[in-house]
């Protein structure tokens, strides 16, 4: 069974058990997400949270500031941008999933998008 966010934060040594308990208490009292509670309490940084979430969901974390984009990427039709696509080169698409765990739905969207682009 996959580890929870709290377990991963402790395992990766971003938090101690006591700090995790403090964040869990804050989360319960303020109806916040655990990651947001940890950041609000200055226990971890947003970058630390993103690292652990990438581990939890088994997806790579990319810092977009290290990439350059074609100017045409911003001019793409809104219809395509809503589908979470972003061209890195005119002939290449990068598919970014809004919900990484819904692989089947995203595969169908990608097939539909490829058919649209071929027309």
Give a quick rundown of the structure.
The protein has 119 residues and is mainly alpha-helical. The chain has helices spanning 5-11, 17-30, 34-40, 46-57, 78-81, 103-118; strands at 85-89, 92-95. The model is unreliable at 85-95 (pLDDT under 50).
Protein described:
There is one protein chain. The chain is built from 6 helices and 2 strands. With 119 residues, the chain is mainly alpha-helical. It has 2 domains: 5-57; 67-118, no CATH class. A two-stranded antiparallel sheet has the order 1-2. The longest helix is centred in the last third of the chain and has 16 residues, at 103-118. It starts with a helix and ends with a helix.
Structural domains: how many: 2
Shape descriptor: elongated
Low-pLDDT stretches are 85-95
Q: On the 0-100 scale, what is the average pLDDT? A: 77
Could you give a short account of the major beta sheet? 2 strands, antiparallel
Helix-strand category:
mainly alpha
Strand runs, count: 2
Order of helices and strands: HHHHHEEH
Instruction: Note the gap between the termini.
Output: 44 Å
The percent range for helix content is 40-55%
What share of the residues does DSSP label as strand, in percent? 5-15%
Report the C-alpha radius of gyration, rounded.
Answer: 19 Å
Q: What topology, given as strand order, has the largest sheet? A: 1-2
Total number of helices: 6
